[in-house]
């Protein structure tokens, strides 16, 4: 079906972006740029969630909808940790604007977003 192929292609685009951004987050952090590291990690999380939403035909065009997708997937996959991981990612997004997190918090946040990206990638390929 054409729609399924389009969804698969768009989902993979988001998966690839999430991998690129998590790599960039680690690189920015290594260079000492907490703000860019924070925002790249948020981007990785957002695109990972968008991959699952795209695969399932769900809307994902706002922060509220991303939180809804995470909640729906957490319920469907019986994985409540997804909510905590996504909250961590969202705190990094806030940190980009406020710069209130220490290096330790940002580093831990990037690590947790990496876990989220892996889980969401698996769920994007699960019917």
What does this protein look like?
This protein is mainly alpha-helical and 127 residues long. The protein has a single domain, classed as Nucleotidyltransferases  domain 2 (Four Helix Bundle (Hemerythrin (Met), subunit A), Up-down Bundle). It has 5 helices and no strands. The radius of gyration is 14 Å and the shape is globular.
CATH topology: Four Helix Bundle (Hemerythrin (Met), subunit A)
Main β-sheet: number of strands, strand sense, barrel status? none
Oligomer: single chain
Q: What distance separates the N and C termini?
A: 15 Å
Which whole number gives the mean pLDDT? 92
Q: CATH superfamily name?
A: Nucleotidyltransferases  domain 2
List the uncertain runs.
none
Gyration radius from CA atoms, angstroms = 14 Å
If helices are DSSP runs of H or I spanning 4 or more residues, what is the number of helices? 5
């Amino acid at each position: 079906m054409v729609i399924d192929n389009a969804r698969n292609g768009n989902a993979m685009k988001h998966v690839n972006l999430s991998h690129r951004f998590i790599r960039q987050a680690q690189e920015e952090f290594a260079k000492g740029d907490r703000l860019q590291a924070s925002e790249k990690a948020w981007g990785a999380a957002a695109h990972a969630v968008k991959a699952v939403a795209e695969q399932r035909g769900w809307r994902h065009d706002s922060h509220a909808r991303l939180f809804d997708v995470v909640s729906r997937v957490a319920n469907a996959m019986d994985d409540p940790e997804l909510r905590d991981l996504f909250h961590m990612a969202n705190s990094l997004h806030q940190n980009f604007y406020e710069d209130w997190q220490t290096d330790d918090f940002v580093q831990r946040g990037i690590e947790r977003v990496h876990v989220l990206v892996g889980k969401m990638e698996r769920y994007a390929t699960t019917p």
